[in-house]
Design brief:
Layout: H1 5-21, E1 25-29, H2 35-41, E2 50-55, H3 59-66, H4 70-76, H5 81-93, E3 99-105, E4 120-127, E5 132-138, H6 144-165
Parallel strand pairs: 1-2, 1-3
Antiparallel strand pairs: 3-4, 4-5
Protein name: Nicotinamide-nucleotide amidase
Domain CinA C-terminal: 13-163
Length: 166
């Protein structure tokens, strides 16, 4: 992994915020393929905050590891708000974390469509207290690497929002 120093700094700040709140964190990643967890665990001492990470790149993994219903994926597609929410909620159920963040999207360069273009990414963030947030971002065709890095930053922002709300 080629590290982005700004993301490492952002990860360190997020870990401290979670630590201060006494919250463990889980990740459920599709298009980022573990980058969110990778940036978090780049920081020494992250094991007191990072509870676990799920890389659920395939639909089967989303179903088997996170309990995302096959019917939900069939109805909305893997890259959708309902699936992002279900991924985050599933990560809460399948972990001991207080907050879970999820990401599913089209990083490109192929795989996009008129309805779901390259750069479309859905984020979910669930709390063990029952709150679930969602964000949709359309990063455009920045290139696969840039879309994935932008997704990591957005996921960190969403966790920070959840910390403020809970």
């Amino acid at each position: 992994m080629i590290a982005d120093e700004a993301l490492i700094e952002k990860a360190a700040g997020l870990l401290q915020a979670c630590r201060s709140a006494g919250v463990m964190l889980a990740t459920a990643e599709s298009c980022t393929g573990g980058l969110i967890a990778g940036y978090l665990t780049e920081i020494a001492g992250s094991s007191d905050v990072v509870e676990r990470g799920f890389v659920t790149y395939s639909n089967a993994a989303k179903q088997e590891l996170l309990g995302v219903p096959a019917a939900l994926i069939a109805a909305h597609g893997a890259v959708s708000a309902p699936v992002a929410r279900a991924m985050a909620e599933g990560a809460i159920r399948a972990s001991h974390a207080g907050i879970a963040v999820s990401v599913t999207g089209v990083a490109g360069p192929g795989g996009g469509s008129a309805q779901k273009p390259v750069g479309l990414v859905h984020f979910g963030c669930a709390s063990s207290k029952g709150l679930t947030l969602h964000r949709e971002r359309r990063f455009g065709e920045l290139g696969r690497h840039a879309i994935r890095l932008a997704s990591v930053a957005e996921a960190f922002d969403l966790v920070e929002e959840m910390l403020r709300l809970t």
